[in-house]
Amino acid sequence: MARNRKSTKKRVDWSDKEHAEALIEQRKFLWDEDYVELLARRIGIKPGKTIADIGCGLGYLSYTYGKFLEPKGRYIGVDVNKKLLHMARKAAARRKMGKLFRFVQGGALSIPLEDESVDVAMCQTLLMHLKEPESAVKEMIRITKKRGKVVAFEPSWEAGVGWNNLREPPIKERLEDLEFLSRIWEGQKRLGEGDVRIGERVPYLFMRNGLKKIQALKNNKVGWALIPPYDTPELKQRIKMTLSSLEKQKNKTSGEKRKEYLEGKRCYMAGGGDAESYKQAVRRRTGRFQRYNEGMMKMIRKERFYSVSTGPFYVIIGEK
């Protein structure tokens, strides 16, 4: 049974240099400024209010929404990782926001804040990583004042679709890929390693735990877009990230590939697949993606590669 499979997966340390830098890069252009202002109004983030950011990491939400709290509001960032909190405090000091912001160590399942002590409890890409996301929702509700807001920014990887001008896979291949990935994602969930498809489920979790006036919104941007001539700061950053990712894939050692294979197999089988099906699927995908990645790199360097893909990033708001 799935619970007896030994994990080879190592928990990601987001405070190490490589992962921290990747986290910063990924979030640079995640939200449009005018949409952030709209969300701040919808959520009720304004001067004098107190917001808690659960699983705050480097404090991304602090500098995204903190400015709406000035001059007398408060932002409280909560995270289990001491190193990330140290980095977040330093970043807040550089922005001269140290008096407005406070960072405390603690987990999402036992938030170190008093009952009904904040006006808004929020999290971004936290629930997707938890074995017990509903327990975290309950804790966020506990610390929120009556008529306060609970907010979750969460994705759904399974809902993503896309198109590019390099290769359009036949329907059979697309369905095979969907089954392959869905089994891995389902396996991760069954193994208690998070749910990357949680976005659509969050409104139900909110409703089941007594929140009212639930709104299900999403980011105004598509998931990913590469449109020549790549001449805006956002497109330049995306091209840089894409080429870096392709180079890493190309230069993986046999040991890294083996570890990735075994980790995928563990999740695939936990999701209801069998070893032979996994082996055949990986064989098909490996050759195909190698050719595709090489072609993509060439076309990007000639500024001829076009790609648009959607991956819903939901904003779920509930009132206590």
Biggest β-sheet: strands ordered side by side in the sheet = 3-2-1-4-5-10-7
Quickly count the domains.
2
Instruction: Characterize the largest beta sheet: strand count, sense, and whether it forms a barrel.
Output: 7 strands, mixed
CATH class of the largest domain: Alpha Beta
What percent of residues are in strands?
15-25%
The mean pLDDT is 91
Annotated CATH topology of the largest domain? Rossmann fold
The CATH H-level superfamily of the largest domain is: Vaccinia Virus protein VP39
Structural class: alpha/beta
Give the C-alpha Rg.
21 Å
CATH architecture of the largest domain: 3-Layer(aba) Sandwich
Low-confidence stretches: 1-8
Number of strands: 10
Q: Kindly state the percentage of residues in helix.
A: 40-55%
The helix/strand series, from N terminus to C terminus, equals HHEHEHEEHEEHHEEHHHEE
Describe this structure in words.
By secondary structure, this protein is of the alpha/beta class. The protein folds into 2 domains: 17-157 and 196-222 and 310-319, Vaccinia Virus protein VP39 (Rossmann fold); 166-192 and 227-304. Helices cover 44% and strands 19% of the residues. β2 (74-79), α4 and β3 form a beta-alpha-beta unit. Residues 1-8 have low confidence and may be disordered. One of its GO terms (biological process) is methylation.
